[in-house]
Amino acid sequence: MERKQGKRAPVIKDVAALAEVSVSTVSRYLNDSPKISDDARARIAHAIALLGYRPSRVARGLVTSAMKSIAVLSSNTTLYGSAMTIQGVEDEARAHGYPVTIAKLNGGSTEALRASVDMVMDFNPGGVVVLNYDAAAHEALGMLPDAVAKVAIAGDRVEGVARLDQIDLCENRAGRELTAYLLGLGHTTVAHVTIPGGGGGYSRTAGWEDALRAAGRPIPDVLHCTWDPKDARAIGRKLAHDDAARGGEHGGDARRTTAVFAGNDEIAMGVIRGLEDEGVRVPEDVSVVGFDDHPLADVWSPAITTCRQDFAAAGRRAAALLIERVGAPDLPPRFVELPGELVVRDSAAAPRA
């Protein structure tokens, strides 16, 4: 029996009608339930072949209460780190036969955020990966049901959450290392341009502050920026005329800004462009370092000293942890560290005498 062109695709009800069984019996067949007679099993298989029926993963998931799928929650899917992390999740999930749903969080309000989370949970994913890169993602993580398997990438360590595994990108350590590198070049202190969600004890911002405090150096006030390099460019222009970067916590003498630690490489690019707009040279007058090792960091002028993070590896590891937990829900919480790597290029140098 052939389907005529232009007709709708067959659905589970069509299979049930042709096989002369109930829809629930077809669902049990699709989910390999042993509670089906050999006769019914044969008739369903024959009906599926005749109709060319393709089972819906969603329909199967609704019967088993959890789809064999992974959902990814992210506040921004276009940033380099987010995009590479998602790619890693997809690569690992595909290797295990798990489709991936990507959901952009609406962080305009708590109600909007909850609506984003509820929409994802309506599809009963087998597990959820949260790109815990900012406050909205952190809030969304707290909205997920205890029963669902979940992995948080980045952010502060969370204790006592059921079925939660975490991946630490070791940003605090990297922030300390980058700051110590600039101090080692001879800079008296380091200004910091932070990205959204840059707070928390495990963050790169906390690492910057820890390094300055450990060295007994002035701690300038944090310069807050959006994800937009254009806003960082405006900050760069301001820094070009800032001859009094003072230690916000320690006080200290007024001094010219000679080193800047930007929250990521795109922000570093904006700061560099803003400084150069005002005739300030990098690194001759001001050193600038970034974070993440964006592909453009190596070809930017000057090439940007940064911390390389393997976001794709984090995504792959997150998917692997999630798939393991789906198969063994009672596994104890796991905390995995993925350290970054200092990459020294041309954007930082010793300060002029």
TrEMBL record:
PROSITE patterns: HTH_LACI_1, HTH_LACI_2. Residues 10-64 form the HTH lacI-type domain. One of its GO terms (molecular function) is transcription cis-regulatory region binding. CDD domains: HTH_LacI, PBP1_LacI. It comes from the Bacteria. SMART domains: HTH_LACI. Keywords: DNA-binding, Transcription, Transcription regulation. It holds the Pfam family Peripla_BP_3. Coiled coil: none annotated. PANTHER family: HTH-TYPE TRANSCRIPTIONAL REGULATOR GALS, LACI-RELATED TRANSCRIPTIONAL REPRESSOR. This is LacI family transcriptional regulator. The lineage of its organism: Bacteria, Bacillati, Actinomycetota, Actinomycetes, Bifidobacteriales.
